[in-house]
Amino acid sequence: MHRILLIALASFAALAQAEVQAAPAADPAQVAATQLAAAPEIRPDDVVLGKADAPITVFEYASLTCPHCADFSTKTFPEVKKDWIDAGKVRWVYRDFPFDPIALKAHIVAHCGGPDRFYGFLDVFYEQQRNWVKSNPDESVAALASITKIGGVSEAQVKACLADDKLSKLVVTNRQSGDNAGVDSTPTFFINGSKSTGFKEYAEFQKLLEAAH
């Protein structure tokens, strides 16, 4: 395992036992009005969904082992994609924010298929989160590899990706960008610069998008 991944694993070790808690629900109008000076900006290495000229840009910071993130991915995001991203009103940027060593490896694996498969792997990883999150990281990687194999990425490719400094650095850079923006729980969203935290049903999340439109 290469140096970057070892450093990242060491930095997340203290968080390995931490459980990510959903933040208390906030009033949508107040959230929409709260601007964060350190809000993230698009980078060349971001994997973006939606039109480049969409009036709303959403950054999502999430951890693949976070149950609340899985709830958002499976319950809320499909409607957001249909009504807002596919309609040209939102461009969506997912930023890796792993909270533990298993999540770190999972995020690297999600990038293993390249940009075209990234969001597809995220969807399946969240949908099957209970099946691959194990106490043993090696068992988690093996379970993830069985999923990616269906998507055309072999176990050998997964192992190569985990040893790839470029992918490790990408995930760590995404995590650090969240730290710089004040992210301390997942999921966290920046909607045209306005910060919102915690899982939200579609009706509530839609109000935040409407306020930014």
Automatic annotation (TrEMBL):
Q: Does the keyword Signal apply?
A: yes
Cite the PROSITE patterns for this sequence. Answer: THIOREDOXIN_2 (PS51352)
Q: What InterPro entries has UniProt attached to this entry?
A: Thioredoxin-like_fold, Thioredoxin-like_sf, Thioredoxin_domain
Instruction: Check the UniProt entry and state the signal peptide residues, or none.
Output: 1-18
Q: Which residues form the Thioredoxin domain?
A: 12-213
One Pfam family matching this protein: Thioredoxin_4
Determine the domain of life of the protein's source: Bacteria
Q: Which UniProt keywords apply?
A: Signal
Outline what the protein does: May be required for disulfide bond formation in some proteins.
Q: Which family does it belong to?
A: Belongs to the thioredoxin family. DsbA subfamily.
Q: What is this protein called?
A: Thioredoxin domain-containing protein
